[in-house]
Amino acid sequence: MKKIEAIIRDQKLTAVKDALKAIGVAGMTVSEVKGHGTQKGITEVYRDKQYSVDLLPKIKIEIITTDENVDKITKTIVDAAQTGSIGDGKIFIYDIRDVIRIRTGDTGEKAI
């Protein structure tokens, strides 16, 4: 089992969520986060004053899935979230040792 963690632009959430639903992703966790990568934030002007915004709003999507579905899910996220500009985000993939469904006590892939 794997955990897919995607950090994407906040305006791409609907497109990514719809694309994942279309390929049959049953569940995901979505969080609003702030951060920056290589772009180191942005500089804006407000009332003739220049200021730096170093933590930009992003969306983090977390999905637990079987090993077989990782490539399909990551490709779907990239296709739906990609703009070609700096700040599109990143995808991280982690190994998951076990999953336990609290309600039933199911473990492993049955619990996903």
TrEMBL record:
Signal peptide: none annotated. It comes from the Bacteria. It holds the Pfam family P-II. The keyword Transmembrane does not apply. PROSITE patterns: PII_GLNB_CTER, PII_GLNB_DOM. InterPro entries: N-reg_PII, N-reg_PII-like_a/b, N-reg_PII/ATP_PRibTrfase_C, N-reg_PII_CS. The modification O-UMP-tyrosine is found at residue 51. One of its GO terms (biological process) is regulation of nitrogen utilization. Gene3D superfamilies: 3.30.70.120. Keywords: Phosphoprotein. GO terms for molecular function: ATP binding; enzyme regulator activity. GO terms for cellular component: cytosol. SMART domains: P-II (SM00938). Belongs to the P(II) protein family. This is Regulatory protein P-II for glutamine synthetase. It comes from Kuenenia stuttgartiensis.
